[in-house]
Amino acid sequence: MTIEYATRYRSRSFIPPEPGKPYFVEKGLGDRAHLFTDLFTIYAGGEQTENTFNFFTCEGPRGDIIPAHSHPDTYEVFYIGQGAVRLFVEDTEGEQYERLLSAGDFGFVPKNCPHAYRIEQHHSLIVGVAAGPGGTFERFFENLGAPTDALGLPPAPVVPAPAKFGTVPRAYDVRFLPGQEWRTGS
């Protein structure tokens, strides 16, 4: 049995609104949001971990590269649970890396490094963890995208209004980099 809570983000959630409580969430029943063509599910966030880390998944179809961005104060982990995802990263000296990650593969993005990814196979699943001194960014997905109770992918892409790109990201340690070019070949 999964317990429901009321939180400041949602009228009903399976994630408790404060730290220090053990809890369990059934597969897929975390706080969900649609953004672009993907489904993001948060299982633990800043409220539960005293802003030390978050844990989320991203499920999506094969698609376009997501916008290049960086997190000035946050380290991010990409673990591929299913499918294949191409990860693009630029280090702080400007050297670029590109790697096709398959199920079981791991990618690490240090803070302040531009990065992006592209889902290469339908039904891919990214398991993400982010941590850093600036807190956590998991509520970015539902504030830029659209919160949902649906368990699947969005029926149509959820594309944020242009004004949201200028306001929401900064509150969540996300800096979009519209001029970023990937010289890695893919």
TrEMBL record:
PANTHER family: PUTATIVE (AFU_ORTHOLOGUE AFUA_8G07350)-RELATED. One of its GO terms (molecular function) is dioxygenase activity. The keyword Protein transport does not apply. Gene3D superfamilies: Jelly Rolls. This is Quercetin 2,3-dioxygenase. Pfam families: Cupin_2. Residues 62-120 form the Cupin type-2 domain. Keywords: Dioxygenase, Oxidoreductase.
